[in-house]
Amino acid sequence: MGRDFAKDRSKERVKMPGRKRREEPEEIGFLTTLSVPSEGSVGLTGSWRTFRPVLDGERCNKCLLCWIYCPEACISKDLRINYDYCKGCGVCAEECPTKAMSMVKEDEEEGAAGD
Amino acid sequence: MKTIQEHGEEKRVRMRLVETGNHVAAWGARLARVEVVSAYPITPQTQVIEEISRFVAEGEMECEYIPVESEHSAMAAMIGAAAMGVRAFSATSSHGLAYMHELLHWAAAIRLPMVMVNVNRALGPGWNIWCDHQDTMAARDTGWIQLYCSDHQEILDTVIQAYRISEDPRVILPVMVCYDAFVMSHTYMQVEIPEQEAVDRFLPPFRSLWKLDLERPFTHGSVIYPDDYEEVRFSMQRAMDNARRVIVEAAGEYRELVGGYHGELVEAYRMEDAEYALLAMGTLASECRVAVDVLRERGYPCGLVRIRSYRPFPAAELRELLSPLRAALVVDRAVSFGMEGPLFSEVKAAVYGSGNPSIHGIITGLGGRDVPYDLLVENAEAAFKGRLPAGSYWPSVRLNEHHRLVKRSLEEYWRKEGVR
Amino acid sequence: MRLRDFPEEELFLQGSAACQGCPGSAALRVAFKALGRNTVLCVIASCTSVLQSPYPVSALNLPTLNMAFATGGATGSGMAAAAERLAARGKFREKPTILVWAGDGGTYDIGIQALSGAAERNADFIYVCYNNEAYSNTGTQRSGATPYAAWTTNTTKGKEEWRKDVAQIMIAHGIPYVATASLAYPTDMFRKFAKAKEVKGTRYIEIQAPCPPGWKFPSAHTVKVARLAVQTGMWMLYEHENGKTTYTAGTQRIIQGQAKLLPVEEYLKAQGRFRHLFHPERDEERIAAIQKRISGLFEALQFTHKMKEHLMDIEISPRL
Fold first, then answer.
1. Which of A27, B10, C65, C267 falls 20 to 30 Å from B217 in CA-CA distance?
2. Which residue of B has its CA nearest to A21?
3. Is C64 an interface residue toward B (CB < 8 Å)?
4. Cβ atoms B107, C65 nearer than 8 A
5. Tens digits of per-residue pLDDT, B85-96?
6. Mean pLDDT over residues A88-99, rounded?
7. Other C-beta atoms within 10 Å of A104: how many?
């Protein structure tokens, strides 16, 4: 049995179907409670955020602690933050040993750090 | 290879054994090439798993046998094994079935094929290891197909057929093969063990519509909201509807490829010209068969309808068989407390609105009480003359010396304690 | 293993239903990285049933079976037995790892029978208890893992009993590998999973999982609270194999005298579930009772460590 380890399914996205009622009922056939792996499985969880983590590249020593501690896998190994899904929990900023990560209020300026 | 004639067809028989119903069930699992068996011992099922563990230990079955620590775990392990994509089997009875009840629902809704044998036994308290159908009746609404056997050969043939039914893509529901405690589980009867090649022709290698696949990961059974849930249940109901056809097909193909036939959803006996009928399941149906012959002698054109498939319920077959009749008597070996015999209710519901047979019901044989044919004849005559009380009648209930002793002692206790 | 050597691939997909600062998803990430793609997952009723997101999509990118509460050990047994058969039939290039993932309710309480049975049969799978010390999924009720004096919704004045210790119970089963882990020590956790992967038989790993809403601390403090638990001795890191317990990471440093055992107050004060021990007034008695148990144990462990260095081989059970 060949196995495709190389294929990265983490990038696969599944389109949520619309919930419009049809005129003609479709044949239900075989159905069970199978779910399909997908990023954003409850939508853009970035909307949960009040504070956003901002990384100061100058101060960062690339220790990767923020990458591994992030409970949501929103920080990539090359330290890019995915604001689509980052819930703003603040673990990364709290654990950053060089204080390179800071939490900035969503509607405030990020200063020089940018994103 | 010996061949014998039965039902007019050639049957491919590997050997004849004189065996207990339980050992015959184990042979069924072996011939079906089951790969994982998980079970917990309970009287009167124990011989099934003892025999399977022996088959495995002696290298006669390529199978993992998991001696789990409870029936709840037996069913969980079966679900885990089936989800990985192998053929799984278990056996239980009574309290064991009740203990795994939660997972009966799970096994059905997960939509994976699997087969379990249940030896019908009464429930406690009052430890009673003898036969009645209360255990499986209480598991009626779990989504399992339930097939009831009435002789040893039927156990063997039904276990094999059950996998075929369960794995049919139109069905994909678990199947419970039921037979009566002691009367079948522990008695010896001659059984013809078919050739493995014949069974293999009838039952292809395990198939299912999904599994835990490393190539294509799915998550099964996470949270599901009201907007999505109902269709999943509807799909199970449709699968049950499909099973009606699949059970008939399986019985026919089994007769052709392996040999042996025990009826389809129902087995009818002397119903061609019948004006009256008895209805029952399991070994009570065998007793009813004798009663039918006696009733015929007494001038009642009576037949027997033995219900093999309780779920799916053979509503159409019963309508066809019963609507031309004058009267019928349903013999229940279980009770739906606060109502009546469950089979009685369902037969009436099935026939409602077609024809006008007068349908009566009795409950008897609970906890293994003997049901002699003359009791059946007597109550059938009363029923056919319209003299049975409404609802399920309990013809064999009486207060005996044991009950009186307890009542005397209790009354003394109540007096002493001032209990009214 | 250094952090930079951890695999980049994420088998936990972002945008899940997990709470902010969830220790469950954080633990899943490390476990998945250590075990890799050739893993079949069984999730027992717990917060993980929910955080993976509802039908029809899932944050778990491994073949996953959600199962009923009491079934972890049994489902794992069935999956392992099936994998054994499939391997015998040559269906795998490499036999997959079976991973059962349960919470403390599903492990300490309702699931302990099935787990014990599986361990006694030495069924071939890794069982993980991510221990958030309460029934967090149903709104934080007490479990057998809830520590003494902790508030839950049904121990409103603090739990009166001490928690039981399932890792020690698993050691008593004689299974080949038992380990405890902490979110604050990811390399230690990763190493334990990687090691467990190579062992055949029942392997048990318990991860302490500080739960922000359940334990009442800010979501940013998940890792900090986990670290304090180890530094104050409220959570111990060790692994047990071949009849020997080896203390690891933060716990090892305390026992070997390289780090100081912090006062337990620092851990208790970091969480709202122990607030009643300090407000409206200090509950000297209960704080001292907790400290006494920890100090007593660590003194014994430190003593044994010194004795071992010099004299002989003694084992002390690290039961709290």
1. A27
2. B227
3. yes
4. no
5. 999 999 999 999
6. 98
7. 17
Q: Where are the domains of chain C?
A: 3-310
Classify domain C3-310 at the CATH topology level.
Answer: Rossmann fold (3.40.50)
Could you tell me if A106 lies within 8 Å of chain C, comparing CB atoms? Answer: no
Residue C56: asked if its preceding bond is cis (omega within 30°), the reply is yes
Domains and CATH numbers, chain B: 2-257 (3.40.50.970), 266-393 (3.40.50.920)
Interface test with C, best of A48, A68, A84 (most C CBs within 10 A): A68
- Judge: A14–C56 Cβ closer than 8 Å, yes or no: yes
Domains belonging to chain A, first-starting first, are 42-109 (3.30.70.20)
DSSP code of residue A43:
B
* Cβ within 8 Å, pair C84-B84: no
Residue B226 distance to chain A (closest CA, Å): 13
* Pairing state between β B145-148 and C238-241: unpaired
- Rounded Cα distance, B51 and B53, in Å: 5
| ipTM entry | 0.95
Return the residue matching tokens 């071949």.
C242
pTM score, whole prediction: 0.94
Q: Are C71 and B76 an interchain contact pair (Cβ–Cβ within 8 Å)?
A: yes
Q: Answer whether A82 sits within 8 Å of C14, measured CB to CB.
A: yes
Along the 420 residues of chain B, how does pLDDT read in single tens digits?
A: 334 444 445 567 889 999 999 999 999 999 999 999 999 999 999 999 999 999 999 999 999 999 999 999 999 999 999 999 999 999 999 999 999 999 999 999 999 999 999 999 999 999 999 999 999 999 999 999 999 999 999 999 999 999 999 999 999 999 999 999 999 999 999 999 999 999 999 999 999 999 999 999 999 999 999 999 999 999 999 999 999 999 999 999 999 999 999 999 999 999 999 999 999 999 999 999 999 999 999 999 999 999 999 999 999 999 999 999 999 999 999 999 999 999 999 999 999 999 989 999 999 999 999 999 999 999 999 999 999 999 999 999 999 999 999 999 999 999 999 987
Phi, psi of A42 (to 5 degrees): -120, 25
Chain A residues within 8 A of B227 when measuring between CB atoms = 19
User: Which residues make beta-bridge pairs with B145?
Assistant: B175
Is A47 at the interface with chain C, CB within 8 A? no
Rounded CA-CA distance B92/B108 in Å is 17
Chains with ≥3 Cβ pairs under 8 A against B?
Answer: A, C
Distance CA C206, CA C221 (A): 20
Residues in chain B whose Cβ is within 8 Å of chain A: 109-111, 169, 172, 209-210, 214-215, 217-222, 224, 227, 231-232, 234-235, 238-239
